[in-house]
Amino acid sequence: MITSADNDKLKTIRKLRQKHWREKLGVFVAEGEDLVNAAERAGWEPEFVLRAGRDVDPGLLDGVSALGSGTRVIGVYEQRWSEPGGRLMVWLYAVEDPGNVGTVIRSAHGLCDGPVVLGPGCADPYSSKAVRASMGSVFARPPARAAFHELPGWRIALDAHAEQDVRGMELGDRAVVCAGAERRGLPGEVLAAADAVARIPLRADGPDSLNVAMAATVALYEVGNRMAAHA
Amino acid sequence: MITSADNDKLKTIRKLRQKHWREKLGVFVAEGEDLVNAAERAGWEPEFVLRAGRDVDPGLLDGVSALGSGTRVIGVYEQRWSEPGGRLMVWLYAVEDPGNVGTVIRSAHGLCDGPVVLGPGCADPYSSKAVRASMGSVFARPPARAAFHELPGWRIALDAHAEQDVRGMELGDRAVVCAGAERRGLPGEVLAAADAVARIPLRADGPDSLNVAMAATVALYEVGNRMAAHA
């Protein structure tokens, strides 16, 4: 039973709040029963797991928690990275909000067979906030990393100003939904190189665009349905 | 030019971080050019607006900011509440995360003609985080408040365990998409009283459910498209 805040495992957990340390050590923290159970269901062996009152004094575990008081379990796991693949996947560009990255990982786990592929400038999917937003889907479907030109398949760039909407779009056998940052969207060179550019149909009196996680999710839903109908 | 932190307007802004004060005063804060511009576009007269360097010392404005340093403008507005209405709207039950509430307000503004109707236990749509997540849609389409039994139209309850999926569902002339809290979903009495219970179709090897804002958005997209096709 760990009874000192000087313990190496507790120090590691504290360090892993920083991206710098997550990259250096190649591991990350999952906090709470739901996430630790999701890791187990997906067959991930933890580096270590600390349970309050069994492995560690509860107050000390709270002290390294990113959530605040009441944490009962924290697990530390090795980061895994997939390769782009599957019939349908999603590519994110400069999505800086870790909650959005984690939420899209969860949506993709439900709506397509490929991973979320992170392009330049995205939030770390292994940050505490992204892991939590993924609700454990990060274990079932680890993210990939790739530049736009490395993506296989028919690349559909989402753009609020596109003429075509996602319901009318031509589709290939394999597709990648590409979604860009809040406000700036995808860069011009991606729009120019994409196989299709399409928008989510929104009301004329509506907002300019949806939140990026919403747009990616709706596009995965639509494209996935249409691919299934044509399969 | 305000040069003292004791100024009444600055004190009001500080108080409005608390729901208690927002309810008591019936006003709320919008921070940043984008939101203040969205209010203006929607024709909302502010109670007051403070611009850094013009109306107030920049350091003092930063001091009352919910975002931290660099704030250039803060506006205070009277809260407005819509009535349930329109052909398609969304009802939220116990959605406690203000980011989710604000994001659904933005999605509804883009995908349906009715407001977001808040049922019991939802986060305050006029909290700073919800207003920000709405990206200004809270001005264009103020939320409503109602209990489930007060909702007009065909009430579609989203439930991850429903047999029917949203693509096959019968629709009325008017519809309300009803979405419940993360984890717990909608309560049994709502599922029992709803006109239809449906799920978002997810992969068998996927997560149990989508994030509530994603589920509501996908359902609005699907139901809206189907209603337009049958109109």
CATH architecture of the largest domain in chain A: 3-Layer(aba) Sandwich
Task: Give the quaternary arrangement of the chains.
Answer: homodimer
Beta-strand share of residues of chain A: 15-25%
Largest sheet of chain A: 6 strands, parallel
What's the SSE pattern of chain A? HHEHEHEEHEHHEEEHEH
The CATH superfamily of the largest domain in chain A turns out to be SPOUT methyltransferase, trefoil knot domain
Separation of termini of chain A?
A: 56 Å
Q: In terms of structural class, how would the helical and strand content of chain A be classed?
A: alpha/beta
- Overall mean pLDDT of chain A stands at 95
Which strands sit side by side, in order, in the main sheet of chain A?
Answer: 6-5-4-8-7-9
CATH topology of the largest domain in chain A: Alpha/beta knot
- The helix content of chain A, as a percent range, equals 25-40%
Using the alpha-carbon principal axes, give the shape of chain A.
Answer: elongated
CATH domain class name of the largest domain in chain A:
Alpha Beta
Give the largest interface pair and sizes.
Answer: A-B, 32 and 31 residues
The unreliable regions of chain A are none
Explain the overall architecture.
By secondary structure, the first copy, chain A, is α/β, with parallel strands linked by helices. Chain A folds into two domains: 8-78, Ribosomal protein L30/S12 (60s Ribosomal Protein L30, Chain: A, 2-Layer Sandwich); 88-230, Alpha/beta knot (3-Layer(aba) Sandwich), CATH 3.40.1280.10. Chain A is built from nine helices and nine strands. The first copy, chain A, has helices spanning 8-15, 19-25, 33-41, 58-64, 98-111, 128-133, 137-140, 188-193, 212-230; strands at 27-31, 48-51, 73-78, 88-92, 116-118, 144-145, 154-158, 175-179, 196-198. Chain A has a six-stranded parallel beta sheet with strand order 6-5-4-8-7-9, covered by helices on one side. Chain A has a three-stranded antiparallel beta sheet with strand order 1-3-2. The longest helix of chain A is centred in the C-terminal third of the chain and has 19 residues, at 212-230. Chain A starts with 7 loop residues before the first helix and ends with a helix. The A-B interface holds A 99, 103, 106-107, 109-113, 133, 135-137, 140, 167, 200-203, 205-207, 209-211, 213-214, 217-218, 221-222, 225 and B 99, 103, 106-107, 109-113, 133, 135-137, 140, 167, 200, 202-203, 205-207, 209-211, 213-214, 217-218, 221-222, 225.
